[in-house]
Amino acid sequence: MQRRSLRACQHLVLLSLCTTALLVGCKRDAEPLPGAATEPAAAVRQLARHLQDNDLVGYARAAVPPAQYAELETAWAQGHSRWPLTELPLDEKLPGLLATLSEKNAEQQLQRAFKAQLQGQAASVRQAAHSLELFGVQYITHQGDYSQAEREHYVQLVTALSAWAQAAPLSDPTLAKTNIATLTTAARATGLAGEAAFQAAGMTASLQQLAPFAAAVKQVLASYGLVLDDSISQMRTGLISQNGDNATVRVQYPLAGKDVDLQLVLVRRDKRWYPERTLRDVDALLAAARAIEQAKAQAVADEAALSEAPAQDAPGNADASAKP
């Protein structure tokens, strides 16, 4: 159990860092970027506002066209999709993390793991954060399916988050006790303790039930000096270029005291703008889900055709019909 609790602590820290990467976007006390009033730039800000409000359903509906949202909900029910959770790094760990946090004695188990591994280990935590930065930058630079713009953005994120982790009081026992209680309470309230619960709830209900947990994660990060909602409210976006139904938006924000600058490609469908990478991933996901369902339907049809074949086609009946 101690090893499982340690893994839960590690997953918790990683989830917090990854959630930070998705939720932050801003620039302090600065003038709007050129093209801030354009539709593509406004679409990016709208996505961020949904996250600031912990409105995960609103975020999902704004990230894809309505027809795709409906198809994604069906694919979830069929067991082929967990979008938009798959946009989170370590998304496959989320059901298990919530299950661990929801256990009856989760607080005590996590407290023991914290005391054994982190309490009073500020220097070790700083060294671990520094090592993760080196590994993360090396991996992003040379591995993974990323565009050049994505690599540049993720390197900035890893560098900023490493600096934050090295300075944050992650080994403070008082904060740990409070934050473990906050997260376990929020996890139990989701009712999503495991993969089966996500499947049964469906996409929209799962996102609704996760919203308070997202708020709890932001509350915990704020206690360690990373106030995400303040950052999101100061977000800056601008238009770099637009060619027909394609646009490139510039996004700037400070993260843990460092300025991050990225470019985001958007595509217009049905008069609305959506992140191109999201649409590409969702198109592939839905194509795969359709193919699986078509194969299942064909298999059922083939089996039905065989069972409905004329009785005289059976070998035994053929022999009987040949007798005088």
UniProtKB/TrEMBL annotation:
Write the record's keywords in alphabetical order, separated by commas: Signal
- Signal peptide positions are 1-23
Specify where the region named Disordered lies, as residue ranges.
303-324
What is the name attached to this protein's record?
Answer: Lipoprotein
Please give the organism.
Answer: Stenotrophomonas humi
